[in-house]
Design a protein that fits this description.
By secondary structure, the protein is of the alpha+beta class. It has six helices and 13 strands.
């Protein structure tokens, strides 16, 4: 099998029997995020490990050299321009490599289109899978992005609220497919419940799915490599963003 052939055009071709039950609407988890008290779901065992690793290897070979660094550090003025005690105000900070696949003329986007990564993220079966978890219809005009976390890469506290976008202001859905190498020791998603950052789940699996009913407060901890594995420790994230379908 060629490396190109290892990127399926349909999400269902990656799924295990458990994942296919969700896709077919036959699992207890269907509609889980329709509960207004539930903002986030983490799922392992829905994507076949061997197929996930084959996909990861394609990204390593073909997309890694084309990624763009995203680095938004803590602004120094958040400390030195404070006028009063305890008035800290932290903007979103992040360090990661990325490819915005909607920028169709970018080299990374063009390569992702050739490989089939864009088709995978725009596939009908991925949208239906997300719909089954969301418990409501989703707009098929989705957004796509690739992220790659290396050692120390993270995303600081943020809520992913977009009040200036009329369609997204009332909420939307993200689906993330994580593809971690064996060199990764750990990375966690921490999110708020009841107004406090009390919830934490690992996100560094191979073929690990996370589905977000946004907006809500969360952050991603710095990726940690296993001893002696710094050069090969990476967590890829294939991301699809869905607006809710118009009534």
């Amino acid at each position: 099998m060629s490396k190109r052939a290892s990127v399926p055009r349909e999400f269902e071709d990656l799924l295990t029997p458990a994942g296919l039950r969700i896709l077919g609407g036959r699992a207890d988890l269907c509609g889980a995020l329709a509960d207004p008290r539930r903002r986030f779901l983490a799922l392992d065992g829905m994507v076949a490990k061997g197929k996930a690793d084959a996909l990861r290897l394609v990204l390593e070979e073909h997309l890694l050299p084309l990624l763009t660094p995203m680095s938004d550090p803590i602004p120094p003025e958040t400390i030195w321009e404070m006028k009063h005690d305890y008035e800290e105000w932290l903007p979103k900070t992040v360090r990661v490599q990325t490819a915005y696949l909607e920028r169709k003329r970018d080299a990374a986007s063009l390569r992702a289109q050739e490989l089939g990564v864009v088709d995978l993220l725009k596939s009908e079966s991925m949208a239906v899978f997300a719909e089954q978890i969301a418990g409501r219809r989703l707009d098929r005009k989705s957004g796509q992005q690739v992220l790659c976390y290396g050692p120390g890469d993270y995303a600081g506290p943020h809520n992913d609220h977009h009040p200036e976008n009329a369609r997204a202001a009332g909420g939307y859905l993200d689906l993330h497919l994580s593809l971690s190498s064996k060199g990764v020791d750990h990375q966690y998603l921490v999110y708020a419940k009841g107004g406090h950052f009390t919830e934490m789940v690992p996100v560094h699996g191979l073929g690990f799915l996370t589905i977000y009913r946004l907006p809500f407060w969360h952050y991603t901890t710095p990726l940690q490599a296993k001893p002696g594995k710094t050069d090969e420790a990476r967590r890829w994230v294939l991301l699809a963003t869905y607006l809710y379908a118009k009534a």
